[in-house]
Structure formats: structure tokens, C-alpha cells
From TrEMBL:
A Pfam match: PD40
Keyword Signal tagged: yes
Organism from which the protein derives: Lentzea indica
InterPro entries according to UniProt: 6-blade_b-propeller_TolB-like, Amidohydro-rel, Metal-dep_hydrolase_composite, Metal_Hydrolase, TAT_signal, WD40
Stretch forming the signal peptide: 1-32
PROSITE patterns found in the cross-reference section: TAT
Name the UniProt record assigns to this protein: Amidohydrolase family protein
Keywords: Signal
Residue intervals of the Amidohydrolase-related domain: 620-949
Lineage: Bacteria, Bacillati, Actinomycetota, Actinomycetes, Pseudonocardiales
Amino acid sequence: MELSRRELLTRTGQAAAVATAASTLTAGTAQADAGVKLTQGTNISVSRSADGKWLAIDLVTAIWVLPSTGGAARKLTDELQDATLPSFGPGNQIAFQSYRDGNYHLYVIGLDGSGLKQLTQGKYDHREPAFSPDGKKIAFVSDRGGSYGVYVLDVASGALTQLVGAPDEAAAPQWSTDGKRIIFISGTATVDVVSLDGKRERLVTAPTGAQLFGAAFGPGDQPSYTLMRPGQADLMLGSTPVVTGQDVFGFAPVWDGDSVLYTADGKIRLRANGSTKDIPFEVTVPVRKVERHRTKNLSGGPVKGIASPVVSPDGTKIAFRALNALYLVSNGKAVKLTDGEYFDSDPDFSPDGTRLIYASDRTGVAQLRIRDLVSGEDKAFAPDPGAQITPRFSPDGTKVAYLDQDGQVWIADAAGRRQITPALFQPGRPTWSADGTVVALAAVKPFSRRFREGTSQILSVDLASGELKYTEPMPFRSIATRGDDGPVWSPDGKHIAFIVESVAWVVPVDAKGNFVGEARQVTREVTDSLAWHGNDALVYLNNGRLRKSTLDGRASTIRVGLNWSKPRSPERKVVHVGAYWDGEAADLRQNVDIVVENGCVKEVRPHQGRVDIDASALTAIPGLIDAHNHWHLRGRQWGARQGRVWLAYGITTVRSPGDPVYQMVETREALAAGTLVGPRFYATGEAVDGSRVYYNFMRPTLSRAQLDLELRRAHELGYDMIKTYVRLPVELQRAAVQRSRVPLSSHYLYPAANLGMDGMEHVGATNRLGYSHTVTRQGKAYQDVVELFVRSGMSMTPTLFHNRALFAEDKSLALDERTRVLFPPWEYERYLADANSGGGTSSAYLLRNWVEFALAVHRGGGLVICGTDAPLDAPATATHMNLRAMVKHGFTPREALITATRNPARWLGLPIGAIKPGAPADISFVSGNPLVDIKAAANVQQVMVGGRVHRVPDLLAPYQNQPQVLAAADALQPLASAQNTHWWHEPEWAERVCCDH
């Protein structure tokens, strides 16, 4: 196929980011750079040719070759190949793993770059190839058997032989010199060996608290491997350390007698005769200098944030959440049902249409309430000590299925509450069979323990037998999101509807939900949030519009008639402060008045005359910006508390690089309209992911056509950015850059830095490799990473999860009244326990290394922006813990504050993050001098957003003396299905892993 000019130039690293004429979206802007010279590599691996003349390495997701004595490296694979882990075979062929088509497969290529050939195919991953000594076989691992097992590929015939299978999670196989045995890592706990006849032996077991990586046969067939302990990575031979005191990368070393070739500290190293020498290498890679976009503020108009719509049984009314309230729409007129400062969400009609069940945190935490639509009576229903969210009435109206904060499904009725599933990882909303004997919902089913991603399937619970059953909506396909995208049972029980690849499908089912026919596509436009309209039509959301489609595809728009506008700016105010920091200066300026008009700073002048607000005992600093959090990851559980806790800690702007789209748009509109208390909110919808997903708000995207639908949603709903996620192939990531008009971020530095991406999230982040090319397992980054960040201008958002290690010195933020009052009870209990344990498993050495990495980027001229990944880390308090960690490990207080003010403001292209004439009046008033003591930045007494003042006591008041829950309904005996029999069934918060989001 002939390449377009754009594709040709992109493959050579010179593409200009301009839109094609056919695209309705314009491309982001970036300028070509002459190239970046790399002399070190972070987490690179090395292989040596059989004749000892050549080395192959993987650097910035490409395979390179260089002379074994070192020198300039030559690139063999292009960016789209996304190639790693080379292994030399006879004839100087090189095997490697490639993610080109959205799954890992094995390829071979010649030393001169010729003969590229794909060896494996399909929807399973095939990883970590190793040529046998005679070159006739390749050992590798694959999840094709239900977990990662060891396989052998016969190169000539293509035949596969499985040597190790379930329940193992094997990794990194390597051959013995005689080609009769294969050594590998099982999990990260043991080194095992298996012979070609299947005989297996355990050679090494990791000590407590340690992990094993990169096994190989050493001299005398002794096992060699990397032993990783906190702050230490040793290359071992048997039980003897061979290399210590270095950041050994954990890939299989190459032994030749007593000499060993390995990678560590960003370098290729050869240890022989008791001494070590570096083998120098040099490559030059192209980058594209980022030009910043300008984020647009919402100004009002038709409501697009319509969350979780449901249709009344008679089809005359639709209920939904919008602008921080519940609404009923009928005949094009919307009527508000609830109004207040709390969080009311997820309505559902009773079967007779006379009542609504919904969740509300008006009593302190999200609890079920029933509203009589005739009388207006509103009362609690079957209270629970925890959260009660996403309720659904049973077909007879006597029961309600709902989720709690741990992802457990419950059924409540007049007799009490009964648990029917174990804790599930971010499941979807329940739906009932027509006879009320089965409850179904969306749940993730991973492919293996080794890598967390899987597909979002239909999980059904038989209430009579207690059986749990997973059903794929289609082979190797996911339900679009585990939110409101299905499954949804039709009222007559004959069909289930769901969304796959952003369009609606229906499938005929029997009474238990078993598929009895093929799924049929109903819509061809962007489709979200399905609800049945009778038995022959679906209601859904299409880019902010409420739509209805018959099952034969005839669609029409349902008029909502709901608009919003921004509130008037507060009156002019003069604020007298004892001191202020403008966001740039090296020192505070003393005794000034800040004049605020129309929500902006009019002037800053020496104190004079009468003032409206006396803050003479306080210091004014720009409101802080947290540039990485996910408002609705636990949004229903946090409810209206979340906006208040951000403000109470002086954070006046937040940026979300991923949220359930309509929950996000609803909250963004409510905050802009002033119907919800909280900071400025800039955000995106679901991250654009590949064929496998983990979180419930990731969009599995499998084609260019579907990507166009995803980008159309982003455009029409006015996303502030787009995040591409872990499993999206490079080709689709590149297309997203070319076709988008907003900033983009991901978990990858390269080739993102050459595609025109605007940023990278976390220091290293979850990576489809299972490790990062940005930071090592010891938390270190080398010249390649720092230089690429600085030269490209891409932002880096560290999200310093291990800031919890600071609890060993100071747990005041966990004990603070703001934290105690505004955190939901279960969140506060976990947070306090973490603080009391001194940070639990958080690693002080990793925290130090991460901060030193960020500091090198910052002082090199790169753009470091403060973010936390809240609520995976604690909302608001983690922002301050990040700043404190930065200062502890090298940042000055001013530098740390700049990462939470000026820098993220620059990323957003907004005049926030400063106190100066013309800037929005987003100001935090604190006790003390944060330029001297960074802890003072958390001593917030009051905060101003757009000139509107919020006192901390007022922010706490709605939850200050609330009972945690009303008298709880009786907890009945759980069903058998509530027992946890699947290893992946766990609450979302159960496993804290750094940078996993």
C-alpha cells in the first residue's frame, strides 16, 4: 500500500502535525527537532551474536545493533514496530517481541535490517523470545493457556509446544548451552528449569521481601539472576553476588565462561577477570518540540452532562442526573427533583413508575433513598454502614440491587440486606432478569495474574444456585466501559443490550441470560449509557444528546430543554494580606492589598485604607493545581465531599486525565454553573486504550474507525485533553495525535516525544512491557529519559505515591480535622491506618529516586507538573505530601510550588497559578511562609476561586456533625456466590501499586 506523505514523514521522524483534509479534527501542533543524542538507556536489555562481534539492544522501543566493542548504534525497527527484548540467533538473525498490532508477537529480523518476519499471530500475547543455541527453536512465554506458560516454537514448521502452563506465571526463558533445558522465572519468586521433555526443577527461591528477574545459565550451569531488594539490585550466580552496588536492570545476562555482559546504571557493561568496563553506545532519535494548547473555559449553553439516564416503564419520562441534581424530562421539559449541596445520583424507576430509587450522601455517605413521584415523599431505604450506589429495582419492585464502596453487589428488601458477590474490581451497574432470578453486571476478567488487563465481560449471578458465570459479549471483545454501557436486560427478558466498540448491540438470551443467538448491531453513531425504552427500542447518549433508536436502527433525538449559565462574578473586594507570593518571586512581598473585580485580580498595591477582607495575619499564594486525579474513579462514594476537600487544602484547580465521560461532563458543568462546590475542573473522558483493559473507564479501541468515534465524542463534548492508555498501539496513538485538537498524554515517553504528545503521566507508570523504559525498578532514570523530557518539552507528572513514607516523620495531615471530616469514613480509616503504620509498604528509597529524577528534568528546563492520581492517593492531602517529598529530596520550596502553580497553568494554557493583574482570583490564604517551610502551604484558612471566598469551617459544615449512616438494615446470610473463588476478585483499593493509573 502506498504511504501518504504524512505517514512517510512520520516514519522517518519528520512529520508535521497538520490535519488531513478529510478529518473533522485538527492536529496538535509540534515542531520538528534536529534530534536527541542518547548515550545511556533506562531499562535496556542486551544480546550478543554467536560470533561475539555484535550487540543488540532495545532503546526507546526499537532494536539497535552496534559492534561489541561499542560505538554508534544502527536502528533496525521503526517506531510502529514497538520492539523490545532482542535475542541473537545463528546467522545473526535477531528475534524480538513487537506490539505492532495490539498484542505482543514474536518477529525475526536480519542484522542488516532485512528479512523482517512475524512468527506468531492471534489475540493472545507472545513475549520474551530466546533463540536456542542451534537456532532451530525459540523459547517464549504466552498467556494463551490461561496464564503465562513456557512454550517452544519450531522455527521451520511454526509448531508450538507447551512446556509449562497454568497456574504458573512464567517469564524470561533462556536456554542452556546444550539446548536441552530452559531456565525461567516463575512469578517473581523462584528460578525454575524445565527440560524439553517437561521435567521441571526449582533452583532458587527468593528471600522474604525480595524479587527475582532475568534468569540465565551461568558457568557450570549455575543459575544466574538479578536479586531485587528495596534499594538494592544484585546480579547473582547461584547464591553468590557477582555485581553489587549498581542499578542492575534485571534482564538475562550473557555469560561467556566467567565473563558476563549485562546492563546497569544506564549502560552496557562487561565484567571479566574481576573488573568491569562500560561498552559505550550512541544513538540519535528525532523529537518534536511541544507547542502548548490553550484550554477553553465553559461559558454555558445546553446541558451535555446527562448522567445515567433511565426510562419510565410507560416510556413517557426519563430520569437522569445533571447540574448536581436529579431531573425528570417529559415532552421536552425538564423538571428538577432534588436540589441542594449533596450528591444525588443514579435514579431508577419502580416497575409501576410511581417511585424513584437513587443514591444520596445527604446523611453523610451515599445511601439509598426512595422518592414518591406523586406525593414527593422522600425517605431512606435499607441503610448500609458503607456506601450504596448504582441501585436497580427488581422486576416486582420489592428488591433493589446495588453496589457498595468495595464493588460488592447486594440485594436489599424489607427483610434486610444480602451480599450476592464478593468484592469486584470496579464492576458496572446491576441489571435484573425478567423473572428476578438472575442479576448481571459488567466485570473485568484478566488474561493472567502477571498482567492485570483483560476484557470487560457479563458476570451473571444465579440467585437460586449461587453460580457466578462470565460471558464474553463477543470473542476477545469488551463491553465499552463498566459503567452505564451494559449489560441491560430488556423488560421482557428476551434480550440483553450492551455497547461494544462505541456502538450498541443486542443479543437474544434465555431466562438465565445465556446467549441463544448472535449479537446484532443497533446503532452506528457514538453510543453511551444504554437504557431500554420498552422492549423494542433503546435510549442512549450521543455526544451530549439524548437519543432513541428502534432495534432496526431508526434513531431520533429526545428534546431535553435544559440549559445552564455561569453565575455572576462576585462583587469587588479588597483583601488585606500580611504577605503574598505572586507565583514567581523569590521572596514574599509584605503588607499588601489584593483588589479583586469581576472574579480577577485588578491590582496588588501597598496596604491602604478600608478593606473588605482582613487577612492581615495570613499569606496569600496562588491557588494550587493538582494536575493528575480522577474525580469519578470513586466519585459516587466521595459524593459532594470531594470538591470541598480540594478547596479546604487550597487546591483551586484540578485536572483529570481520565474519568467516566458523562459523570465528568456533569461535574464540570455543575462546578462551572456554581451548583456544586469545588475547584476549577479540567478533564477528559475515558482513556483510549487497546484490546485489553483494567479500569472501568478505559475505552478498548481496536481500529481507526472506532478511534474516529472516540475522537468525535471528545470533540463534541469539549474534552480538555485526551489520554491514550497502556495497550493502545503506536499506530493508533499517532493517529490520535494527528486527528485531535486538544493536548494528549499517556504513560509513554517515546515514541510519544516524536509523535507530538504533550505529556507523560507518572514517573514510570503501568506499561504493557511490565516494566518501564522511563524509570527502573529501583526508581532511577538516566540520560536518555531526562534529555528526551527536556528537549521535547513534554510534561512529566510524577505522582509520588511513596510520599506515604513521610508519615514516619509527620502524620499531621492524616490527623487534620479537614481530613477527618471530609474523607468518607472507610477512606479515612484506611488513610489513618496507613499514617499510623508510618506509610506501610511505601519505600523511602524509591521516593528519593523519583524526586531526584523529577528534579533533574525540572532543573534541566523540562516541565514538571504536580499531580497525585487521587483517589488512588488521597485527594488534596497527597498534593501537599508530594510537595513535601519534593522539598525533602532536593527541590526548594519555591521550585516545588511552581510545579503546582505556574507549570500546570502553562500546560493548560491558562492565566491561573499566579496572583497578578488580569489573572483569575484563585488564591489560597495560609498561615506561615511556604517559601521557607513548605508545610505552610497546607495551613489553609480560606480560599478564593474566581473571587468567590470559601472559609474552611463553611466547607466542613455539611459533614461536620453528620451521622455516618442511619440505623442499618439487617445483614442477612450471604449467598454462596459471595464467596471469593476467583483470584482477580478484589476491591479497587486493595492493591496499592505505584503509578498504576
